[in-house]
Amino acid sequence: MWQELGIAVCLVLVLEGIPPFLCPRRWRATIAQVLQLSDRHLRLIGLASMLLGTALLYLLH
Q: Which domain of life is it from (predicted)?
């Protein structure tokens, strides 16, 4: 199980690194917009992301 968790973390790092590598200006502008969001909106986005990821894992498994 630990090996799969390590693989998942590595894949997240790779995927998170793609946008700033390919288009750093757009990525920086996006981050600036995210900084303007309220805590409530960020929490809702995080919740939606977790639910979507869980649903996709369930469907794929």
A: Bacteria
Range of the domain at 29: 24-61
Decide if 10 contacts 16 (C-beta within 8 A).
Answer: no
Q: What is the DSSP letter of 22?
A: H
The rounded distance, in Å, linking the Cα atoms of 35 and 15 is 21
- Using CA atoms, how far apart are residues 55 and 53, in angstroms rounded to an integer? 5
Tens digits of residue pLDDT in 8-54: 999 999 999 999 999 999 999 999 999 999 999 999 999 999 999 99
In-domain check, residue 58: yes
As a whole number of angstroms, the distance between CA 22 and CA 44 comes to 27
Distance CA(49)–CA(45), nearest Å, equals 6
Domain count of the fold of the chain: 1
